[in-house]
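Homework help thread (please don't just give me the answer)

Our assignment gives two proteins as sequence + structure token strings and asks us to describe the second one. The first is just a warm-up. Here they are:
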Amino acid sequence: MSNHNHLTTSWGAPVGDNQNSITAGHRGPVLIQDVHLLEKLAHFNRERVPERVVHAKGAGAHGYFEATHDLSQYTKAAFLSEVGKRTPLFIRFSTVAGELGSADTVRDPRGFAVKFYTEEGNYDLVGNNTPVFFIRDAIKFPDFIHTQKRHPQTHLKNPNAVWDFWSLSPESLHQVTILFSDRGIPATYRHMHGFGSHTFKWVNAAGEGVWVKYHFKTEQGIKNLDVELAAKMAGDNPDYHTEDLFNAIEKGDFPAWKLYVQIMPLEDAHTYRFDPFDVTKVWSQKDYPLIEVGRMVLDRNPENYFAEVEQATFSPGNFVPGIEASPDKMLQGRLFAYSDAHRYRVGANHNTLPINRPVADVKNNQRDGFMRADGNGGAGMYYEPNSYGGPKEAPEHKTTPFAVSGLAESTGYDHDDHYTQAGDLYRLMSEDERTRLIANIAGAMKPVEKDEIKIRQIGHWYKAEPEFGTRLAQALGLPVPQGV
């Protein structure tokens, strides 16, 4: 093998001239035999994979998770049950609605997706920097995201659609209140909490289960951006959050989070005052206190953004033994949709890429497809069951059952109190925080053309807290809702 630092083609041949095309004579035209030119142009045309439909703009980093407390009484997941055990991980932070080139400092939830490379397979915890979400059934997700994207005629953002949808979907009230609070624009990715948001199920070695919610608490403290400063930075440095994360790690200022969980006994799900599987609601920490699990540290930047951040694929359906799904309807839809998005965007073999490849051995019968860059299973067994010693199922890792009953029908949640928790959040705020919240909402709602949409939305906040609705109505110059 040559030791020369030669530029080569993709098939490894040295390039003799990378400055000039091969032409017929001094003035050309260019010859089709210049395969190096053709390869460069053809590859350049294909350098962009489709961007993510949501969470397109993001930043990532490598790090580790260290278990600091033994929670084996709740889960048999090995990376959580041995104090001092370190598990490598990769995290991707993101905005939700904007395109790949959009500004970092907009008012938007932030994606908080963590891939744990455990000995039992990859575990993905794909959440946000908020403990709740706008909707609670995946069937509404495409419609919701359409309202956050661009109008099909004008190609402009459309506040009419945003507020029309929210006002007709009162389950969004809690998340919208968080979004327009100070926490709607984090100062950096380092200065925000992260949440699994959904309820999940933990199962211990004895097969005993509990319901669980995840909370990542930033050790850097919560810091948020002033609205006017955020708008200025969106123009001056639209990549501010991306830059801040990279620079902090580069200079050795490694960001860290403590991971806590809330644990709910399985039987409490039948009697808790809010449906514990409704992702638009939180569990009171007075009812289910935070239990410390471990610590996450980010200590290494990607070497290549495309290979590691853009091609990273996360799915809440990537479980390991000891962690399972709950009946949360929003989660149930995500279990399919996320991996399906990656099969479309990156390819059927996205899990064979280095950033997504498990450290655990992969033994399955999935073969072929575009971009199969590993050994494709070699000459090994390619079906199951078989009589030739191929990999077999592991009955001890079957998903644990939970009881279901009722009719097969399109049905909603039993609980429709969308107002108590949003009102509680408002009442927890200081007067300064409330004033900013009202100003943020009023500013966002003013462009809405129909007063009926504004009044309908004000009515929801009035139900949550009369002062909230009244002040918002006054800020918008509209009547205070009567008889709501």
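The one we have to describe:
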Amino acid sequence: MSERLVDAYDLVIFDLDGVIYLIDRPIAGAVEAVGELHRAGVPLAYATNNASRRSPEVADLLTGLGVPADAGEVLTSAGASAAVLAQRLPPGSKVLVVGAEALRAEVRDAGLEPVSAAEEKPAAVVQGYGPQVGWADLAEAAVAIRGGARWVATNTDRTLPSPRGPLPGNGSLVAALRTALGQEPDLIVGKPEPELFAAAARRVGAVRPLVVGDRLDTDIEGAVRAGMDSLLVLTGVHGPADLLAAEPERRPTYVAADLGGLFETADAARVPPAEVEGWRLEDGGGPRLTGDGTAIDALRLLVGLAWSGGDATKVTPDTSAARDALHALGLAA
């Protein structure tokens, strides 16, 4: 029996939004996939850039969705940012918090004092996603940073996935401050910085972790920076066209339609592929896709063309199956 992709790894690190759930709804097949990993005894971790929930809250949410988890398996950018600030500031230092109550609580538990006004002379500003963040919060942060406060962003995801499509993420709010201040944050803690992944591996002593995510610019780039293999699933933010255009630092080891790809053979999900069953690319007046097979296998073949310098956006279908595959991938002309 061929070895499953997941069997070559001693830890699976999942992103959450767009991989396990969308806001508070489980993604199809996610509960079953995680259940299978639990039955097989595979160590799991969850690393999220979303700073609006604390680790116990995330674990409770996952458990409520049918994905049993404990707080020790969850790493958040909020907790990591508070820990970094505690390392760099004297105990009791004031920190202006722009974000959700979860971020304030993490700052408080790290031995620092969360504040809301620039007049309180904070030593740092920490900015994370919060659905209630508004102009007044950004204004206080701008004044504090101009006054000398260190600016720390939990993450810079431009969007976050939702059942209604991508919505503005913390990166969009960071961009507003960046425009107003004419400067970059002093520190960005979350993905694509590698620390969340490295911390997850340290917790269980893993030497060959696999990162699973839906974003090339955070999950996959973060895995590349951490020296870890990665699986891109097409259930969240980034899709086939994004994968074709991915720069080398944002290229995953594997791609799959969903978490079911964990249980395929590694060769069935690897990009670019050594070979693809059923599909061929032929040249003659431009590249043509011919044959029959799954849409995800057609995508893997196109990735090989794109990453070797070819123009995969110019591929035309040579069979009705090829036409259907390109349409399913959103790549039809």
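TA reply:
I won't write it for you, but here's a hint about the kind of observation we're looking for: The chain has a mean pLDDT of 94.
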